[in-house]
Structure formats: structure tokens, C-alpha cells
Specification:
Number of helices of chain A: 11
CATH superfamily of one domain in chain A: Acetylglutamate kinase-like
Strand content of chain A: 25-35%
Helix content of chain A: 25-40%
Strand order of the largest sheet of chain A: 3-6-2-1-9-11-12-10
Number of strands of chain A: 20
Low-confidence stretches of chain A: none
CATH class of one domain in chain A: Alpha Beta
Mean pLDDT of chain A: 92
Radius of gyration of chain A: 24 Å
Oligomer: homodimer
Largest sheet of chain A: 8 strands, mixed
Structural class of chain A: alpha/beta
CATH architecture of one domain in chain A: 3-Layer(aba) Sandwich
Amino acid sequence: MKTIVQKFGGTSVGDPDRIANVARRVAQTVRDGNQVVVVVSAMSGETDRLLGLARAFNAQPRGRELDVLLSTGEQVTIALLSMALEVEGIDAVSYTGGQVQILTDSAFNKARILAIDEEAVRQDLDAGKVVVIAGFQGVDEAGNITTLGRGGSDTTAVAMAAALKADECQIYTDVDGVYTTDPRIVPEARRLDRITYEEMLEMASLGAKVLQIRSVEFASKYLVNLRVLSSFADGGGTLITTEENIMEQALISGVTLNRDEAQVMVLGVPDRPGIASGLLGPVADANIEVDMIVQNSSADGATDFTFTVHRNEFDRTLEILKALSEEMGARGVQGDKRIVKVSIVGVGMRSHAGIASQMFRALAAENINIRMISTSEIKISVVIDEKYAELAVRTLHAAFGLENSPQSA
Amino acid sequence: MKTIVQKFGGTSVGDPDRIANVARRVAQTVRDGNQVVVVVSAMSGETDRLLGLARAFNAQPRGRELDVLLSTGEQVTIALLSMALEVEGIDAVSYTGGQVQILTDSAFNKARILAIDEEAVRQDLDAGKVVVIAGFQGVDEAGNITTLGRGGSDTTAVAMAAALKADECQIYTDVDGVYTTDPRIVPEARRLDRITYEEMLEMASLGAKVLQIRSVEFASKYLVNLRVLSSFADGGGTLITTEENIMEQALISGVTLNRDEAQVMVLGVPDRPGIASGLLGPVADANIEVDMIVQNSSADGATDFTFTVHRNEFDRTLEILKALSEEMGARGVQGDKRIVKVSIVGVGMRSHAGIASQMFRALAAENINIRMISTSEIKISVVIDEKYAELAVRTLHAAFGLENSPQSA
């Protein structure tokens, strides 16, 4: 008998009819011979309704009482889903984060899970019950209600799966899995059957918003098999797992596109130790996150320093750099908002040389100029002109044959 | 420094503006130098909204999960009121029934309070905080969420006042106190400054719906000073307390009117042991509650047996009695829905003879025929024709001088 944790988000439990649908899906999983723990979010719109009430007293609600307020959202859902399961003839019992003892730190509004007492859940499962748990919430050592921050229900599900050593943690969303790239850009984009944690983390951080990064990190740390599926359609979804569990490993798993960045350059900086920290220190102090960083070595004692920031921070960054560049005796500051970052991701590149040159060759064949390059162990990113965004994604998707299922490695 | 428990019902916290009003009132009580515990209900309409969601799955929702659902109503209010108090510059902390450990039995939907752990509340009060507690809810030994049933927030407030040995438990409602009778019938009706628990219990059970009977019983048992006040108007309200605390005791405290009853009679029942149980047993078995019961002794070996039931049960009761009356050889069954019960209530009648005859004389002077009489230690009730209802109430109110404040006893 397998133990399966199923997580349903706000859209999947958005009204009583949808909750009844979820109950039918859970009931089927039980009838298939599994022990099931269900983690649910607040009904869609409910969190915003509660925030609206709180804003009557504080434009930016936060702190302990906000968590007392918001945690009612999931509590409503667990009660309703348990009732819906009863209609399906399934014996169910609901738990709030406090009742199941999802112990967190005391960082209200963005708490982190420290431990889960899975004993009661295990007993209920062994007694033939479905256990319905409120996502997104926990309780600190002193008994205060905490919430995990946006997307926290995914984390609850993965943490519960880890605590129970569940066979699989299924995250039901409004997409039916993780794709090789955005199907709106490349119609041939293929749903991946399996993908490694590392690849999923790179894809998520690069803009493929299917899962919360934190829940994937958690799954990776505790080796939880994580599956993304659609609440509204059938299909096996995408399993996110360890490299060892993936028999047929492609060189490249996906192509991602990020339109949120902007490029800034400081030109002709006198080349001496400490330029990088001298330039980036003040930027970091202004709470601006820097993504890609490139520094060219120079022949004439001066160097060009290039990096990317979020487009929303572009103007502030330029302002800071202009002041700095004068102080440092640089030649000037330039910037460009009309760029995108295109990346290929795949654990296959660890063991295969030549992936980078294959990528650059494919882009060159389409006359796409590369403005920046950055690489990690399982990812290569390039910055290019915005106008080439879709062309670059289509070109790379085809160049690495992503429309075809991978062959055995 | 006094400790005061203040309870605000659903109408008083019906929207953010009203919650802000409550916060101002609480803040004033704090600034007047008191330690304050606030008990709140769900925002008006919220419980019905939640019940509506539950009815999607069960026409008559009940059991454990209903309490998980409904308890979110008060949890929303405690968070919002705590935020509103912060706006007033008051340090507040909220507790759900489970957090403050209002321990109840496991009778979901109608649980009874067994114990309260007031230690944390006492510490918060001593640290200068206002403690905001969710009414209506508790937790059983196993950690399940329970609710106390309708009106349970009053009980929470009184129980908390008892546990803290509070100086006063103030129940804020939409009326400004307890009146000598219904002011819509008698414009001269006077707000009572003080009334005993026993009188309040009689008045409540006779149809003066200001407080839940259970909360008055609780207050009486633990000698909690209970005050009924208006959330929307100023004024001292009515203090419900022990007889010893009432210096100026009137003979009679109030006149009540109950229009919900109907009278049934079994005529000419052969007078032998066991008639009462023979007639009332089957009625009780049908779950029909009987109120007043009168049996006349007879000269000719037959007796008339009269009692009252709720008007909604009139037809069912007549049906049962018709079958019984044939079996028992009675002369017949009669009934009348067009009757009312008028009562006078007052602890003064314990020590003063002649109250009953004074009452009957006053009614006779207005040609009001008395159909049934029933008395308890502090109450005399009569059943009369419905058409005399208002006249009887006005007559008795005047006969006992209720429009005037009582003199020292």
C-alpha cells in the first residue's frame, strides 16, 4: 500500500463544486488502494478577501494577527473537503497546522517549518482515514499561529510527504506538468515525464513558474518524489525526482525565457582590485538584486563591467552607477531594458562536452547576437536583444531535439 | 485595578467600522485603568455564509468538521479586533478557543466548557495587554475543535470572567439593558439597574430574550457580576448579580409575556392513579415539551387535565391525545391556540404574602378571565385569552408600580 500526499491549490478548491471534484479524485486514489493525505490551500479569492478586511486597519497588514486571520482560509477548506469526502463515503479527518503540529519558527507571515509530528497522521491513515491538512500554516513553540508565506501550501505538502516517507507528493495545479519550453512560443513543446530536482530548480528560478522554489528545494533535500499534475485534466504530469530515478536522460531538458531583466554596463573602469565590490556593494546596499555578472579583462588598463538587474530596478541602478562611475574615473554608464535571457537547462551537460558551442552555433546561424554569457553546472544562459526572444527559444528547442522523447542515456 | 471581561456579539463587530468602534470602547476601558479581556463572536452573517458552504455537502451539516468550519468565524474577528486595537495604540493579543485552552467535552456543535487555563491570559493582562478571545469555541481533550452552540459566546465570556475572578462581565448587545416589561407594550417600562440571577433566569425562560439562559446559569453558579449594555448607546445597562448585591429590592421586577404556547385539555378522565403519566408519557415520547400542567380534583370520579405546549406542536399533541382519550375512556379532548402566558417575576414575593391575590385582583378588575395558574418560588404565571395579552401586561405593570424605581427594602 502506497502513501500519497496530494496538494490542491486555491483554484482547484475555488467553490463547492470544485471541492466535490477534488473529493472524487481523492476517493479514487483511496479506492486504488493508497493511503492519502490531502493538503489544501484557501479557496481562491479568500486570502484576498481577508487581506481586504485587514487593510481597513493597516495599509500593509503584517505580524502575528495577520497569520491568525489568514490561516482561517485553509481551515475553511479542510472542513469543507472533509465533508465532501464523507459524501463520497470516505472517512476523513481534518487538521489545522497547529493541530497536526507543523512546528515552525516565529517569523510571522514567512515562517519556516522546523519539524512535523506525523504520529497522529500515521495513526489516522492506518485506521483507514484520509487526512486533510491545512497548507500554508503552522504553529511556533509558544503556540502562536504562523503562516509560511505565498506558495507555502506546496511546502506543507512536501514537508508532510518527507515526514511520512510518502511514496509520492502530487501537486495539482492548473497546468498538466513541466514542459520543455513555453508551448505558447513553441507549439512542439513536450511535457516532460521526469526531470531532476536540480533542473526543476533552474527552470523555476529562470521563470518557469509551476512550483515554488522552496518546495522543490525541500523535496530535493528529503528526496521526496514530487509530481506536478492538472486538477482539471487527466494525465501523469511530470515527476520531479533524483537523477538515479531517471532512466532516459536527455542532454537538455528545457529552454527557458526570462523577460524581466535589464542590462547595465560600466565602461572603461580603471582595472584595479576591488572594482567589482566597489560597483556592486552600493547596488546591494540599495536592496537591488543582481543576476548575471560579466567582467571583461582589458589590455589598456581599463575594463568593462556588465550585469543584469530586474527591469523594475533599472532606473535606480543607473542612478547609483552614474555617481559611482564618476568617482571611479570610469568612461561612462550604459544600459538597455530591451534584452531577454534565454537559457538551456539539463543535467546531461555535466557529462557531455560541446553543449555550449552547440548552443552558440545554433544562435549564430540565425544571426542572433549574444551580449552576455553565464554558465552553471547544468545551465547556460545568454542575454540577447529582446526582438530575438521567440526566435532564440524556437531555435534552441529544435537544435537540441526537445520535441522528441529522450533516448536511454 | 479592576479586571473586566467585555463581550461583543456579531452585530457589534459586523464590519470593519463597527470593529473600530469596539476597539475605541475597549481602549477607553483600558485608559480608565482596567485590565480588559474581550470575547467576540463571528461578524454578523459570517456563520450563515459558512453554513451555506457546508450545505453544499450536507443539508444538515453537523459533527466535527462543522466546528472546524464555524470556528473560523470568530478567529477572523479576533485578528481584526487586535489589529484595530493596535490602531488605538493598545497592545493586544488574540487567542482561539484552542489556544487559550477552553477545554470542553467532545459534544461537537453543542460542547460544554469543562475548564479554562487562564494562566496565559493573566500573564498577558499583567504585561499590560488586552486579550482578545474567540467566543463560542473550545477544544476537547484530544485537541479537536469544538463549538458551544448558538449563543455560546456569552458563555465563553462568563466562563472566562469566572476563571479570572473578574470584577464584571459586560455583555454588549443591541438593547441597553433588561426592562420591567416589553417597552413596545408598556411605554412606561423602566430599565432595571440591577436584577438577581434567579429573576433573570425566569425572565429569560419566559420570553425576554436578552441573554442566553446558559450564560446566566453559569454566572449564577460562579457568582459572576454580569452586565447587559448596548454597543451602540452609552448607559450603565443592567447588572445581574446576587440578591445580596441588590440594596433596593422591588417586590416584583418584571412582567413577561409569552405568545408561543397553546393550551390542550383532556376532559372527564376517570380519576385513578397514573393518569398524568399515562397522558404525558406518550407526549414526551413524541419529543413534545410540556410547560404548564394543571389537574383539577373531581367530585364525580372524573378529572380534567390541562397543559400547554409550543404552538408548533399543538396539532401533533391533539392527535396523540385523541387516541389516548378514547383508550382511557375520557369524555373528550379540547384545545386552544389563541392563549398567552403572562407572568410576574420577583424575588420579593419570597418574603411578601399576598402577591398572587394582588395579581388576580388586578386582572379581575379588567374582566380578564384566568384559564390556568402556575407558580414557582419567584414567579406567578397565568394563561389568559390572547386578546387580553397587552391589557394584562399593562395592568400588572401598573398594579405593581413597576414604572417607579424601587424603594430600599
